[in-house]
Specification:
The structure holds two protein chains of two kinds.
Chain A lengths: L3 E2 L18 E7 L11 E2 L2 E3 L4 E3 L2 E3 L11 E2 L14 E10 L8 E6 L17 E7 L7 E9 L4 E5 L3 E2 L6 E7 L4 E6 L2 E7 L13 E2 L12 E11 L4 E5 L4 E3 L6 E8 L5 E10 L16 E6 L4 E7 L7 E13 L2 E14 L9 E4 L4 H6 L4 E4 L2 H6 L3 H17 L3 E6 L5 H6 L1 E3 L5 E6 L4 H18 L5 E6 L15 H9 L26 E2 L4 H13 L2 H15 L5 E4 L17 E2 L2 E2 L7 H13 L6 E2 L1 E4 L1 E3 H4 L12 H4 L5 E3 L2 H12 L6 E4 L2 H4 L13 H21 L9 E5 L1 H7 L9 H11 L4 E5 H7 L6 E4 L5 E2 H12 L3 E4 L11 E2 L9 H19 L7 E3 L4 E8 L2 E8 L2 E2 L13 E2 L2 E7 L6 E4 L4 E2 L3 E3 L2 E8 L4 E7 L3 E10 L6 E10 L10 E9 ...
Parallel strand pairs in A: 1-2, 20-26, 27-41, 28-29, 29-32, 32-34, 33-45, 34-35, 35-37, 36-38, 38-41, 42-43, 42-44, 44-46, 46-47
Antiparallel strand pairs in A: 2-18, 3-4, 4-7, 5-6, 7-17, 8-14, 8-18, 9-10, 9-17, 10-11, 11-12, 11-13, 14-15, 15-16, 19-21, 21-24, 22-23, 22-25, 25-26, 30-31, 39-40, 48-53, 49-50, 50-58, 51-52, 53-57, 54-55, 54-58, 56-57, 59-60, 60-63, 61-62, 61-64, 64-65
Chain B lengths: L1 H17 L5 H14 L1 H11 L5 H15 L4 H6 L6 H13 L3 H14 L3 H9 L25 E6 L5 E5 L21 E3 L14 E10 L9 E6 L2 E2 L1 E6 L2 E6 L10 E4 L9 E10 L5 E2 L3 E6 L1
Antiparallel strand pairs in B: 1-12, 2-3, 2-4, 4-10, 5-9, 5-12, 6-11, 7-8, 7-10
Helix pairs in contact in B: 2-3, 3-4, 4-6, 6-7, 7-8
The chains are: A alpha+beta, B alpha+beta.
């Protein structure tokens, strides 16, 4: 091939190590040779665009950013076909970046592709290629990655290197090498920065002229720096191709770890005697690898076009770190020896602590940001890719690579499986309204064909991630029930008739039910028979009829079927439905998000509703979520300018979703973890780590992330394993969420807001520790240990529930109701519903006034187990055996200077103090689990009394025991030689003469320290159940004196043990 | 034996000491329920309950009476029409609705409509006398809990105030005549402007009248997510149709005459086409009608 020499050709191939046999220099531009351009901008056969100049031998686009053409056009008219080599090729760019950061994060080095998007259907979108340097976000200045865009005639790909740091002004060589068969290698100054694998053999010839230092056309991406030279080499297509296929990152000590490579015969004759070799860099210093290193693994013969996947065991016993690997495959054909090799990095990654408590960012941001704030997981999905990919192998490779990155960064990922909002599927499986028009944004999920597609995609996706510990969770089809509607399409009407024996009642139109006032002959008692056709229809619709619960069960089941390791599925927002069991199907956890205004204790109301919902699915548990975002309209309306308007408004005058106030985040957190939730979540990363602005989620309070980090790391991390084990105490006060009233009177929270939620807050402030109960639970189990039943918005009841409630009342149960109660029931205490005024202090005061009335009228009839001397100290107790876990939340607040001027939420916490009582006598010790210390208490009149002072928005968790914690005992069993398996038997003992393990759930911390003073991964929090915890951990290959320190986090007692490994 | 007696006494004492002293209000209701549950005292309890000072007990007594006697409790319903308790008032209306004999139902309803003390009860009773029963809960997009996006008003367009037609509906059967339909013979309808009808063609009149107007909606622009009508003043009650579809009502009784309100018409509006807006107005006293402009709000 003729070399395109526009400038003086200087052969200076520095990285001979990467030179490919038979390679040919196709083109070179060296801007240091010719330093002047003509007045018309022409330069060495091409044209300098815009303000681009040659400065001291460097191609220098204009500084700053504007969407105007810059860079160097290699020829104004001609398209050189040589610049799109047919097989493999390599591009090397010598350049340096500017210190000044502009709004444009893409620094284009070379482009003849122009349309860079994947899946772009425009003409010629899948031709040519581009090479760019991309700057990461503002929180990580000077970090970049390389990105390559390639068109293969029928599709395009975009692949990237890993991130690296550049010093502005320093010269670097940026290289990518395409092997002509689905593999790209990125190099920075000759050092591998990542390998990407995809489908694609020969890049389709570019139809546009090439530009150096900018994108071909708008939107322009000028190179924000200077380019000294650019070289393009080509090489012939390979006969034997080696591709990395699976994971390259593994947990330390992970069992059955192996690397996977795909060998392909790209030639036209059989390849014989194929052998694959792995070479780990610096193996001389890492002898432990020897025993695993496969040398010369024989593959045999590959016919033309055939491929073979080979698995190579990977030693995970060494230290955490990265290990470069060189893999070479050789074979023979009639022409002689052929070979291919790749260099890449493998990683050994840290283990999780002994036990963890998920803190999920529902969304994503930079991993380091999420980790810094204490998150353990983020969310992102693969299902859609798997459904629509035309190249499953490259999708698998991409997913593995993404998950590897999570593992390397000691972070975990939840897969978001969402094929409910997919436009194509909505068109394919429409849900029809009664008037025959399609329902927007919802599928007729009861269609078996749709269910099969979803099930198959779930199985495939689960299979892909089954081996990767970085992904251990799954969210299915968020928000899909919001847009559901009775379907009058193909399946649902038939299915209902099959179920009920009669067609859908004529009154049914929408999901909202049918108002009883409009139903002729509706019983004036408003007690309806359980088999009322309308009630029957809606019960069927919400449980199984609309198909979504069935779909979610199927997806969850497929993931569990294919993934044989700890893995959890969840569905949210699970209570955007009426109060009837079944939402989410059989997912492991239900969750739901709640906004923390006007009162940050609102997540408690939602969470308690989730418990009521999960009650209907055996084994199902609950997680919960707080929104980081605040709707501007509900907290600081756009355009309203109160006195003392805060400064953040200047930066985000019309920002629609702003940041949750730090004190609200604190109270909301305590509100969540005071319940038996198995994990917590947040949504709205843009309002935490974003910028101020006027679009979408904006960050308007920088303190929030700091507060969240502190709360997560000091409370949730150490106490999480215990928090997720403390059972709920059997409730004594319950709010009935009536399904019949939802159907016939439009009631229910639908997961948003209503008097039902406000009533829940009111009862929290009354210290009545409310729970939520559904009619189905009452019908199935009766009222159990409930002593006070609150019947708000209970206009209509099913007959079976009504009978149980009357029985409850006749047996001494107290009913508190509002004015909407069915006339068939006489309440013991009638209150008037509170139509909450917008001004937050007035709303809270009104609800607290009713709370006072209730407590005062209940006096003598019912006293709660836990109580406080003022309403702003909210108490809640969870109980394990004889141990009480007393949660205290200081909800005393006022208007602050962040959102306070609008008076819609009191976002500033205030100090508070008061006495807290617990109705129990047998108390020997009370422990503050946050401060890890024993605290004083007094016992009087059968009550435990504690004097408590709180900082603003502070929460507290006290452990009340019938015994005192005496000591910590830790027995170590070890192997002799590092690395060794070490087993701990930990006991938290009481202070009795014959000390026994404390029969409680005690939070503990375990820290292993290596002889060199490093804390071993796998250290961290756990929970000693009944005072006992067993733990086995493998050390690293570091001989010497090891230490293990166990701290119980109730009183702070410790035990430190040493052991020696040879 | 002595010890056992002592133990029993102690236990009894313990139980008594633990038994909560019921609060008077709750206790009275519990006691009343017991009387109702006892067949021997039930009848007397109902009769006495009707006069009890506690409205919760009065309501329960009335409920039980009507449940037992049905139409035979009609006189009691009438007698209690002046009860100040709202819960009892609503129960009376529910009972009247439940009377299957139309003549008897109308008789009681008429009595209550004329004699009740509260406006709301009068209104509710009056409604039982008419075949017009349309109600719809119209929820503004911004208040729709299933719509998880910020809503802003991008544009406000005032509906012309001088192209209205009006007709009186003295016997309140305009809905049966299809006054809200597109294809309607508008003979007999009179032109009217926004403003009280007393000062225009209708003159002094209290009762139902219907308004009609055709207006052109703009083309749906990019980013538009809905529309609503903003009524600045309709004296007193309004029922609204757009393009023959019933949209909702502004019905808070006579006090609603000067209270502005919104109607979500996102589903009913025809973008870029002519729309027919029909409003049924009820006025019970003094000035009446659409007396302030109506605006079309385009939402983004």
């Amino acid at each position: 091939m003729k070399t395109l020499r526009y400038l003086v050709y200087v052969l200076t191939i520095c990285t001979l190590a990467f030179a490919v046999p038979g390679e040919n220099l196709v083109a070179e531009w060296d801007f240091s040779v010719k330093t002047d351009s003509a007045k018309d901008g022409s330069y060495a056969g091409g044209v300098l665009r815009g303000e681009t100049k040659i400065v001291d031998g460097w191609l220098t686009p204009a500084p700053g950013f504007a969407d105007k053409p810059e860079g160097y056009c290699v020829h104004p008219k001609q398209i050189f076909k040589e610049l799109t080599p047919a097989g493999g090729f390599r591009m090397e760019v010598v350049a340096r970046v500017n210190a000044e950061v502009t709004d444009c994060s893409t620094y284009m080095m070379f482009d003849n592709k122009y349309l860079l998007g994947v899946g772009d259907t425009r003409k010629d979108a899948d031709t040519g290629y581009a090479f760019a340097l991309i700057r990461n976000g503002p929180n990580t200045p000077n970090t970049f990655y390389m990105q390559c865009f390639m068109g293969f005639q029928d599709h395009s790909i975009a692949v990237r290197s890993k991130s690296f740091t550049l010093v502005p002004g320093e010269t670097h060589t940026f290289t990518f090498e395409f092997n002509g068969g689905g593999r790209i290698l990125f190099l920075l100054d000759g050092v591998v920065q990542g390998t990407a694998f995809f489908k694609g053999n020969s890049v389709a010839p570019a139809v546009r002229t090439a530009i150096i230092g900018d994108r071909f056309s708008s939107t322009h991406n000028r190179f924000n720096g200077q380019i000294k030279s650019l070289k393009l080499f080509s090489f012939p297509p390979q006969t034997l191709m080696l591709l990395s296929y699976g994971r390259v990152a593994f947990l330390r000590t992970e069992k059955n770890a192996f690397l996977e490579y795909k060998l392909k015969n790209c030639g036209e004759s059989p390849l014989r005697d194929i052998v694959i070799n792995c070479q780990f860099a610096g193996d001389a210093e890492k002898p432990a690898m020897d025993k695993y290193q496969p040398t010369g693994k024989e593959i045999g013969t590959l016919e033309p076009g055939a491929s073979h996947i080979v698995s190579i065991p990977f030693d995970t016993s060494r230290m955490i770190g990265t290990y470069p690997i060189s893999v070479t495959a050789t074979g023979k054909n009639e022409k002689g020896m052929v070979s291919d090799s790749i260099k890449m990095e493998t990683s050994i990654c840290p283990l999780n602590p002994p036990d963890t408590y998920p803190i999920l960012m529902w969304g994503s941001d930079k991993i380091e940001n999420m980790k810094r704030t204490g998150f353990t997981h983020n969310l992102g999905g693969y299902g859609r890719d798997v459904l629509y990919t035309q190249d499953l192998e490259s999708t698998i490779t991409r997913i593995n690579s993404e998950l590897d990155n999570y593992l390397i960064n000691d972070f975990r990922h939840a897969d978001y499986f969402t094929l409910a909002h997919d436009k194509k599927l909505i068109e394919q499986f429409p849900r029809f309204k009664k008037d025959g028009t399609p329902v927007v944004k919802n599928i007729e999920a009861s269609n078996p064909e749709y269910q099969k597609i979803i099930s198959d995609v779930a199985a495939k996706t689960a299979d892909i991630i089954s081996n990767h510990p970085a992904c251990d969770a799954l969210l299915i089809n968020s928000e899909v029930r919001d847009s559901t509607m009775p379907s009058f399409g193909k399946f649902e009407p038939k299915e209902f008739e099959k179920f009920a024996g009669y067609p859908i009642p004529k009154e049914v139109v929408s999901k909202g039910g049918v108002n009883y006032d409009k139903i002729p002959g509706f019983p004036f008692s408003r007690i309806v028979p359980d088999d009322n056709p309308i009630l029957t229809y809606y019960r069927w619709f919400w449980k199984n009829g609309d198909g979504w619960n069935v779909v979610h069960s199927k997806v969850s089941e497929q993931y569990h079927k294919h993934i044989h390791r700890p893995f959890w599925s969840f569905f949210d927002p699970a209570v955007r439905v009426p109060p009837v069991w079944g939402s989410g199907g059989t997912v492991d956890y239900l969750s739901h998000w709640t906004y923390a205004y006007p009162d940050p204790i609102r997540p408690a109301a939602t969470t308690d509703e989730l418990f009521a919902m999960a009650e209907g699915t055996p084994g199902q548990k609950v997680m919960t979520m707080t929104q980081i975002i605040c709707y501007r309209s509900a907290t600081a309306p756009i355009g309203k300018h109160p006195e003392n308007e805060p400064d953040w408004v200047k930066d985000s005058p019309e920002g629609p979703f702003i940041t949750i106030p730090p004190d609200s985040a604190s109270i909301a957190l305590w509100s969540m973890i005071s319940r038996d939730v198995k994990g917590i979540m947040y949504h709205g990363s843009g309002s935490l780590w974003g910028k101020p602005g006027n679009k979408g989620y904006v960050t308007t309070n920088e303190q929030t992330k700091e507060r969240m980090a502190e709360l997560h790391k000091s409370i949730v991390w150490p106490l999480g394993p215990t928090l997720k084990r403390i059972p709920e105490r059997k409730p004594e006060v319950a709010i009935l969420h009536s399904f019949a009233s939802s159907v016939f009177a439009g009631r229910g929270t639908w997961g948003w807001s209503s008097w039902l939620y406000d009533a829940h807050l009111m009862l929290q402030w009354a210290n009545l520790s409310p729970s939520v109960i559904y009619e189905e639970k009452i019908q199935r189990d009766g009222l159990g240990g409930i002593k006070v039943l609150c019947m708000f918005h209970c206009d209509v009841l099913s007959e079976a529930a009504y009978k149980k409630i009357i029985e409850f009342q006749n047996n001494g149960g107290i009913i508190i109701a509002d004015e909407f109660l069915t006339p068939a029931i006489m309440p013991d205490l009638l209150i008037t519903s509170v139509n909450r005024p917008p001004q937050a202090d007035k709303g809270k005061a009104e609800l607290q006034a009713v709370a006072s009335t209730i407590r005062s009228k209940l006096k003598g009839c019912y006293e709660p187990y836990s109580d406080a001397s003022n309403q702003d100290i909210i108490t809640r107790v969870r109980t394990y055996k004889n141990a009480d876990y007393l949660f205290l939340i200081n909800d005393k607040r006022t208007f602050g200077d962040y959102l306070g001027p609008w008076k819609l939420t009191m976002e500033k916490g205030l100090p508070n103090s008061g006495s807290v009582t617990l109705k129990r006598k047998n108390v020997k010790g009370v422990y503050d689990l946050v401060q890890h210390e024993e605290i004083p208490f007094s016992l009087a009149q059968s009550n435990l009394t504690l004097q408590q002072s709180f900082a603003p928005a502070e929460g507290r968790l006290l452990l009340v025991l019938d015994q005192k914690i005496g000591s910590v005992k830790c027995k170590v069993t070890q192997g002799g030689k590092a690395p060794a398996q070490v087993t701990l038997a930990i006991d938290i003992l009481n202070d009795a003469f014959f000390a026994k393990p404390v029969q409680a759930l005690i939070p503990i911390d375990i820290t292993f320290t290596s002889p060199s003073g490093k804390v071993l991964d796998g250290s961290g929090a756990a929970c000693a159940v009944d005072g006992h915890f067993d733990y086995t951990l493998e050390t690293t290959p570091e001989p010497g004196l090891w230490t293990v320190k166990v701290t119980e986090l109730a009183s702070g007692k410790t035990s430190t043990q040493n052991f020696t490994l040879k | 034996m002595k010890n056992i007696t002592l133990l029993i006494l102690c236990a009894l004492f313990g139980i008594c000491a633990m038994a909560p002293a019921q609060s008077s209000e709750i206790q009275k209701r519990i006691e009343y329920r017991k009387q109702l549950n006892n067949p021997a005292t039930r009848e007397a309890a109902i009769q006495e309950g009707l006069k009890n000072e506690d409205p919760v007990i009065r309501k329960k007594a009335l409920y039980e009476l009507y449940a037992a006697k049905g139409i035979d409790a009609a006189e009691t319903l009438k007698q209690m029409a002046t009860d100040p308790d709202k819960g009892i008032q609503l129960l009376i209306i529910a009972c009247i609705k439940n009377i299957s004999d139309t003549a008897k139902r109308n008789e009681v309803a008429k009595y209550v409509a004329e004699n009740a003390k509260s406006d709301e009860m009068k209104r509710d009773a009056r409604r039982l006398l008419t075949s017009f029963t349309l109600t719809k809960n119209n929820v503004r997009l911004k208040d729709n809990p299933t719509y998880d996006h910020e809503v802003t008003t991008a544009e406000k367009i005032t509906i012309p105030d001088d192209n209205w037609l009006i007709i009186k509906d003295v016997i309140e059967n305009g809905h049966e005549k299809g006054y809200f339909k597109k294809e309607l013979d508008e003979k007999g309808w009179q032109k009217i402007k926004i403003g009280a009808w007393e000062q225009q063609c209708i003159g002094t009149y209290d009762g139902i009248a219907w308004y009609r107007i055709r207006f052109k909606a703009p083309e749906k622009a990019k980013g538009v997510v809905g529309a609503e009508l903003y009524f600045q003043g309709v004296d007193e009650i309004a029922w609204i149709w757009l393009n023959e579809t019933y949209v909702g009502q502004h019905d808070i009784g006579p006090s609603g005459w000067d209270i502005p309100f919104f109607m979500n018409i996102g589903e009913e509006i025809k973008w870029g086409e002519e729309n027919l807006l029909v409003i049924r107005v009820h006025d019970s006293a003094a000035a009446g009608g659409i007396w302030k402009p109506i605006e079309l709000h385009i939402l983004k």
